[in-house]
Design brief:
about 350 residues; 2 domains; three-stranded mixed β-sheet; 7 strands
């Protein structure tokens, strides 16, 4: 198997491993659309297992008076009225509740069951730590400053660090391999987002990566038209800016794509799984390959990496992915729920 053919497999394994680390079917996610639960239960017995689930909404309901067996704590989230089998019911409290396995006897129950979704993820953390910025506003400013300063950086640093590398279009640096990487990333990103939907943590991260990649592509293409820099293969002079439509060296769109893809995953999982930083190998490889192919200068790939990373941070801070929010609701559920 050629090196380039292993790229889709490698990327898929990395992302699937991340999903698997946070992705057993335990616990289920309760997608409850009820606005009120009529409750008339003043005595009864419940048997509680150790498994837990997460409610996404808070609902006004009467707090039941329940005689609980085998449960010593006074956690209000455990005030759950449930029926038989694995049918879970809405709690009058938002937060973590217990999903019963056995029967509950109650003198007069009047409840509606919730729909249980077997989402491929663990519950979202209560307080996900910030990644470099502390708010969507700061993330937006980061993007604005990055887009504004990277052209100035390229203009100034081209006199210091830019030089044309010897052409090397063989082995792992072959152009076909970097193109395979680009196509593999787009495929994994698109298929992962459509399959997982936006309910789960990993699915939402995929959609954030989609946002990041789309915004990055628009930004880099606009800068290519404005800066119109000659590629190393076109000219040995790294200072040839504003040359017209012939030239689109600055910034590197492919490096920016790789950075925009990996950043939301790193921002989401870096504290629990430090190995996720290994994903940075994708933009680093692509940067080296593009310079060896004489497709970009050093400042091109550095600027592309910065732009992609900035958009990735912004997309991660926007907890509701933009593209997902304008699509029909079926995309939120994900294709895996249809099979």
């Amino acid at each position: 198997m050629k090196w380039g053919q292993t790229l889709p497999i490698a990327i898929g394994c990395v992302v699937v491993t991340c999903a698997w680390a946070h992705g057993t079917p335990h616990p289920p996610h309760l997608n409850c659309e009820m606005t009120r639960i009529p409750l008339a239960c003043h005595s009864g017995t419940l048997n509680f297992p150790a498994r837990e689930a997460v409610f996404s909404r808070s609902h006004p309901a009467l707090s039941p008076s329940i005689i609980r067996s085998g449960l010593a704590d006074a956690n209000p989230f455990n005030h759950l009225v449930a029926g038989t089998r694995d049918v879970a019911y809405e709690s009058p409290f938002a937060g973590t509740v217990t999903r019963p396995h056995g029967k509950a006897s109650c003198s007069n129950q009047s409840l509606k069951p919730c729909r249980i979704q077997n989402v491929w993820t663990r519950p979202d953390p209560v307080d996900n730590p910030p990644f470099l910025v502390h708010s969507p506003k700061q993330a937006r400013h980061l993007v604005e400053w990055t887009v504004a300063l990277t052209p100035l950086f390229a203009l100034g640093a081209s006199y210091v660090i830019d030089h044309r590398l010897a052409l090397d279009n063989t082995g792992i640096w072959a152009r076909s391999n970097s193109l395979d990487l680009e196509h593999a990333v787009m495929a994994v990103e698109g298929v992962g987002a459509l399959w997982l939907g936006g309910h789960s943590r990993i699915g939402r991260t995929f959609w954030q990566a989609v946002d990041s990649s789309v915004f990055t592509a628009i930004t880099t293409q606009a800068l290519k038209y404005v800066i119109s820099r000659e590629r190393p293969i076109q000219s040995p002079n790294p200072h040839d800016f504003f040359q017209g439509r012939c030239c689109e060296s600055f910034p590197s769109g492919e490096v920016a794509l790789q950075a925009s893809f990996v950043t939301p995953f790193i921002a989401e999982y870096y504290q629990r799984d430090p190995w996720i930083w290994a994903l940075e190998a994708l933009p680093l490889y692509d940067a080296e390959a593009r310079m060896k192919e004489q497709g970009h200068w050093q400042t091109d790939v550095i600027s592309g990496f910065a732009i992609g990373t900035a958009w990735g941070i912004y997309a991660h801070e926007e907890k509701q992915p933009f593209i997902l929010s304008v699509l029909p609701g079926g995309f939120m559920i994900g294709l895996h729920e249809s099979f």
